[in-house]
């Protein structure tokens, strides 16, 4: 089995300032590059306890090593249509694993920020 067997298509979202009709600028979200990711709920006791007070569920986001997801990046899970925010820097899965992936942590968000 490969990462692709558990992956979903995702689209990176980029915030841009564009000219407003009445003058000034407004922020809009545009689709950027596509990538694949395997997304799984994190069930470690440490993570659950750390996020209990915020009522948020944390997810592991596994991407191929060449994929970069900077902290606070937003992307859309194409399978569900929901948006996720990356909440950590990447860590490489130990080399003893046969998977050549990076792991990030993230959370689903209801809306992209304005």
Work out the count of structural domains: 1
> Quick one: how many beta strands?
7
Shape: globular
Strand order, sheet with most strands:
1-2-3-7-5-4
**Top CATH class:** Mainly Beta
- Helix proportion of residues, in percent? under 10%
Output mean pLDDT: 85
Assembly category: single chain
Task: Extract low-pLDDT stretches.
Answer: none
Would you mind describing this structure in some detail?
By secondary structure, the chain is mainly β. It has a single domain (3-20, 27-109), classed as Thrombin, subunit H. 7% of the residues lie in helices and 47% in strands. The protein has one helix and seven strands. The chain has one helix at residues 45-52, and strands at residues 8-19, 25-41, 59-64, 74-77, 83-86, 91-92, 101-109. It has a six-stranded antiparallel beta barrel with strand order 1-2-3-7-5-4. The model has no long low-confidence stretch (mean pLDDT 85).
What's the topology here?
Elements: E1 8-19, E2 25-41, H1 45-52, E3 59-64, E4 74-77, E5 83-86, E6 91-92, E7 101-109
Antiparallel strand pairs: 1-2, 1-4, 2-3, 3-7, 4-5, 5-7, 6-7
Question: Which features characterize this protein?
Answer:
mainly beta, 114 residues, six-stranded antiparallel β-barrel, 7% helix, Thrombin, subunit H
């Amino acid at each position: 089995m490969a990462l692709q067997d558990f992956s979903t298509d995702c689209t990176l979202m980029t915030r841009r300032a564009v000219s407003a009709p009445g003058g000034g600028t407004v922020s809009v979200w545009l689709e950027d590059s596509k990538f694949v990711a395997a997304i799984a709920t994190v069930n470690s006791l440490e993570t659950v306890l750390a996020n209990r007070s915020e009522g948020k569920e944390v997810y592991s986001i596994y991407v191929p090593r060449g994929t970069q997801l900077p902290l606070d990046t937003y992307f859309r899970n194409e399978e569900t249509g929901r948006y996720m925010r990356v909440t950590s820097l990447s860590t490489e899965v130990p080399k003893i694993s046969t998977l050549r992936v990076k792991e990030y942590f993230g959370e689903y968000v209801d809306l992209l920020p304005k």
